[in-house]
Task: structure prediction
Amino acid sequence: MIKYLAYEYQSIFSFLNIFSYITFRSGAAILTGLFFSLIFGNYIITKLSNIQPAGQPIRKDGPESHIIAKKGTPTMGGLLIILSVLVSTILWADLKNIFIWIAIITILIFGLIGFADDYKKIITNSSSGISSKSRIIIQILFGLLITYFITINLDKSISHSMTFPFFKNLIIDFGIFYIFISIFIIIGSANAVNLTDGLDGLAIVPVMIVAMSFAFITYICGNIVFSNYLLIQYIPGTSELAVFCGALIGAALGFLWFNAPPAKVFMGDTGSLALGGSLGSISIMCKQEILLAIIGGLFVLETFSVVIQVLIFKISGKRVFLMAPLHHHFEKKGWAESTIVIRFWIITIVLALIGLATLRIR
Result:
């Protein structure tokens, strides 16, 4: 929005040309998302507390310490994140860019799915929301819709293909099967972030680190000079997604202010599904799906810990981990919550550096 206003008066005030630069608008989006969260955070948290006086229902089969320490903390804090992202994106992004609208649609759809799940938990005073079967079916349907919008707006030569890190020309076209891969990436990313969101600050900082990485990646992919230099696919228009990623970073920073231990609010499924789904769709739009798995490796690790735990238990009746997801395993081993959170942050930073390094090592 501001880009167009600045363009109207650019001939009179030449300094307004700065608003045409994606790098400037991405930085402005970070600050806008941050300050929106800080300004309206307490108000939204108060409203959430008023409608859910008992707070988020705590899993009875979870760590015993959570039943006491986290009791009464409101959930649905993802509403603050989503609002911050939307306001920041609408202000600073090029709203004629279709990729921006796909990202907005994704965060809204998955935010609504998460909101419905959180709302059911609150009204039933149970840690069980919408049935997992129903939720997956809904996510698949909307994942298909998002995949359709992405593929029809990408060049046909790359819309159903995947690139592989470390290789210059290893690009595989999966044809019609890519639709299933894309849906899996979107809903897998959404649910992976959801599984990771179990401790104060645990999920939001890795999300922020992944968003930082993809702000850089999308900018490079949409810049013909940099993409040719780094030998990665040039995809016109994707550089504008750096502004959306900037909005995610700012919103995450602002939310962390309230989610830092001891948390005043939880993001809930409203936030985790919205953030994860958004990151998944962004990776597909810039054709760097495998990089998402590398940079967001912590989310993959948490998800696999649950899958392994369930499979092994069904086969042998034994548990690999003391509790899944993985962060609960370390809690059971006696690690302090802050220790787990900070060490998982460090892991994400290392994975982000590895992922970004692959852009040059080809």
User: Anything to note?
Assistant: The longest strand covers residues 161-163. The mean pLDDT is 90. The chain has one domain: 23-357. Residues 298 and 344 are 7 Å apart (CA to CA).
